Amino acid sequence: MQYTIRSIPSKLDKVLRQRSKATGKSLNEVVIEALKKGAGVNTQETTFDDLDWFIGHKLLSNSFEKDLEWLDSLPKDI
Fold first, then answer.
1. What is the spatial distance between Cα 55 and Cα 40, in angstroms, rounded to a whole number?
2. Whole-angstrom distance between the N-terminal and C-terminal Cα of the chain?
3. CB–CB of 43/33 below 8 Å?
4. Cα–Cα distance between 28 and 43 in angstroms, integer?
5. In degrees rounded to 5, what are phi and psi of residue 32?
6. Which among 12, 16, 36, 59 could disulfide-bond with 67, CB atoms 3.0 to 4.6 Å apart, if both were Cys?
């Protein structure tokens, strides 16, 4: 998709160009990032992997108390 945007305030132009130079990104990339942020579009995909080790794991027994004991016995830094 392509846009033509007119009447960019000089202060905004200056900030966008400075950010472009500072980050080594093209002016186009910086403008798209600013538009995404301003529109509330997530610019980075969020990945949750803190429970990957547990997914698909079958609990050890049919007893809730025994399963809680097993979970409590796991290392705390997992």
1. 31
2. 44
3. yes
4. 15
5. -65, -45
6. 59
